[in-house]
Amino acid sequence: MLHYAVVFLVIALIAGFFGFFGIAGAAAGIAKILFGIFLVLFVLSLIFGRTRP
């Protein structure tokens, strides 16, 4: 999921560089959402991860 967030961030940067600010804003928003979901899942996996016997 972090991979997709980085991909959308790169798309946003490229679109912003070429002047497509609407597409850049949408891609940046998607990247933020995916990164937030990644962080939540990462923290949950740290908390509820493998337990040692």
Strand content: under 5%
Radius of gyration: 15 Å
Largest sheet: none
- Helix-strand category: mainly alpha
- Poorly predicted sequence stretches spanning 5 or more consecutive residues: none
Order of helices and strands: HH
Q: Tell me, rounded to a whole number, the average pLDDT.
A: 87
Summarize the amount of helix as a percent range: over 70%
Q: Could you say which overall geometry the principal axes of the C-alpha atoms support? A: rod-shaped
Give the terminus-to-terminus CA distance. Answer: 30 Å
Beta strand count: 0
- Counted by DSSP, the helix tally is 2
Features:
2 helices, mainly alpha, 81% helix, 53 residues
Quick take:
The chain has a domain at 1-27. Helices cover 81% and strands 0% of the residues. It contains 2 helices and no strands.
Description:
The chain has a domain at 1-27. 81% of the residues lie in helices and 0% in strands. It has 2 helices and no strands. The chain has helices at 2-17, 21-47. Helix 1 (2-17) packs antiparallel against helix 2. It starts with a helix and ends in a 6-residue tail after the last helix. The model has no long low-confidence stretch (mean pLDDT 87).
